[in-house]
Amino acid sequence: MTAAPLLSAFRQSLGEAWAGGAGALLPLGFLGGAAVLVPLGIGSDADTLRAVGPGILWVALALSSLVTLERIFQADAEDGTLDLWLQAGAPVSAIAAAKTLAHWLSAGLPLALFSPLLALMFQAEASPALLVNVGLYALGSLAFFFWGGVGAALSATVRRGGLLISLIALPLYVPTAIFGALAMSGGPGSTGAPLLLAASTLFACAVAPYAMAAALRLAAD
Amino acid sequence: MSMWSAFANPLKFLRLSDWLAPLFYAASGLCIAWGLWQGLWVVPKDEYQGGDIMRVMFVHVPAAWLAMASYSALAVASFIWFIWRHELADIAAKVIAPLGAVWTALCLATGSIWGKPTWGTWWQWDDARMMSVLFLFFLFLGYMALRAAMDTRQKAARAGAILAMVGALNVPLIKFSVDLFTSLHQGASVMAAGGPKMAAVYLWPLMISALGHSLLFGALVMTSMRTEIRDRRTARLRAAALEGGGADA
Questions:
Q1: What is the count of residue pairs from A and B with beta carbons less than 8 Å apart?
Q2: Tens of pLDDT along B181-209?
Q3: Which residues of B touch A175 (CB under 8 A)?
Q4: Looking at beta carbons, which residues of chain A come within 8 Å of B158?
Q5: CB contact under 8 A, B155 and A214
Q6: What's the rounded Cα separation, in Å, for the pair B131 and A140?
Q7: Block means of pLDDT (10 residues each) for chain A, length 221 residues?
Q8: Beta carbons within 10 angstroms of residue A110's beta carbon
Q9: What range defines the domain where residue A48 resides?
Q10: Total count of domains within chain A
């Protein structure tokens, strides 16, 4: 095994995600747009917004992962790049993980970094806790991207696969979303929740690449 | 391995299910009828559980049991197909999914009907069992949607097997997280305490109903599998005929 295919898969995905629009600004615009709709939809009451704010950001992160992942493997399956990855001599699971990681870096991590600003818009108190939340959002969104990647790999040859990815991946997002929201609730049990969040992310990182690899071999047939 | 091979023979399956399926239908009809008769007319109503509405239990609990059992069966069939590529296992997985989804929906619907008069709400986000069953329903839907989206039978089988196995790995985690989520929101649930605490007068009709539903599920799976086997055979024959016709022309 050599690392070269992994690096080039990573670079290619990063380049695609960066070039396919305004770089990281496009996912940020998506997040901003989704978040701005919420006060319009549920009203501008400060207490309500403060209560739902962290949850809205989790939902927006989940949606963002689904929207950006639709083409991650589909384009490769269409133009034959996928066949080259399968012959590259590196484990397919590692290539899939590298591509997913690149997409997370361009469409997941920026959103997590941006989250304190949105939290303030949702009437949260400015405190160091917002910076802790950045880490939690980053950790949780990584799990979202890996499970979403499984959906994307399974529907790589399906037209309009985006809707299918949502249906496949959403039940898999449940534990991460629950642990993440719990960690930010400040209520009972929230002290151990970050560890559970990390565990669910590790589980996703451990299992999803193999499922993606099996699905990609199928897509290449 | 040899055990699976015996089960993997479609002809043997057709011969076996030819008499087993009708037997299952008859037995399930008897069990369900007896369970419903006991449940609807014979057993005393439990005022604490909402009076007469608690009789929906004799459909609700068997449906909940089958919701879980059918997803397990789906995962096992997918695993067997993925490892040994026995076509019957894929046929089983394919027909189990819609049937399992129907029983899962039945469980959700009867649960809501029971919940409204007793808890005063159709749906409670704080209840772990409701949430788990709902996510199970979505797993079934995703599985069926994925299979339907694939353009060949072989691809549908492979994609479905991968998804069913990933889903099965996640089910314990989903269950754990939902339990945690709900245990923090409310104390002990007000729902009926099940199992050994239940009076024998309820337990027996419930067990027989569950057996009846399981037998019905098994019979429907066998019938659908027989249909699917013949569908595939028809497709193969038609393809062969088309090829032959092409050579003639």
A1: 82
A2: 776 554 434 444 444 456 677 788 888 99
A3: 170, 173-174, 176-177
A4: 214, 218
A5: no
A6: 20
A7: 78 75 72 83 83 84 83 84 84 91 87 86 81 90 94 88 86 89 78 89 94 91 81
A8: 20
A9: 22-220
A10: 1
CA distances from B126 to B76, B178, B179, B181, B188 (A): 30, 9, 9, 8, 11
Q: Answer whether A188 touches B (CB < 8 Å).
A: yes
Report yes or no: B119 and B162 within 8 Å, Cβ to Cβ. no
Taking the mean position of all CA atoms in its chain, how far away is CA A58? 10
* Distance of alpha carbon B152 from alpha carbon B249, whole angstroms: 27
Among candidates A146, A9, A182, which has minimal Cα distance to B169? A146
Q: Mapping DSSP to helix (H, G, I), strand (E, B) and coil, where does residue B194 land?
A: coil
* Residues of chain B contacting residue A203, judged by C-beta atoms under 8 Å apart: 173
- Full domain range(s) for residue B122: 20-44+51-234
Q: Is B162 on the interface with A (CB under 8 A)?
A: yes
What is the structure's pLDDT at B194?
47
Contact check, Cβ <8 Å, A174/B150: no
Q: Which of A165, A163, A121 is nearest to A144 (CA)?
A: A165
The reply to whether A17 falls in a domain is no
User: If we measure between CA atoms, which residue out of B206, B216, B17, B217 comes closest to residue B100?
Assistant: B217
Q: What single-letter amino acid sits at B148? A: A
In a domain, B222, yes or no: yes
Residue B8 inside a domain? The answer is no
Report the pLDDT averaged over residues B73-89. 92
In a domain, B218, yes or no: yes
Is residue A14 situated within a structural domain? no
Indicate whether A66 belongs to any domain. yes
A93 close to B (CB below 8 A): no
Q: Report DSSP state, residue B38.
A: I
Q: How far does the CA of residue A22 sit from the closest CA of chain B (Å)?
A: 32
Chain B residues within 8 A of A157 when measuring between CB atoms: 150-151, 155
Separation between Cα atoms, residue B162 and residue A154, nearest integer Å: 8
Total count of domains within chain B: 1
The answer to whether residue B242 is domain-embedded is no
Residue type, A213: A
> Rounded to a whole number, what is the distance in angstroms from the first to the last CA of chain A?
23
Q: Is the ipTM of this complex over 0.90?
A: no
What span, in angstroms and rounded, lies between the C-alpha atoms of B39 and B196?
Answer: 18
> Chain B contacts of A215, Cβ < 8 Å?
159, 162
A81 lies in a domain?
yes
Q: Collapsing DSSP states into helix, strand and coil, what is residue B46? A: strand
Give how far the C-alpha of residue A76 lies from the chain's centroid of Cα atoms, to the nearest Å: 19
User: Which class for B193: exposed (0-12), middle (13-18), buried (19 or more C-beta within 10 A)?
Assistant: exposed
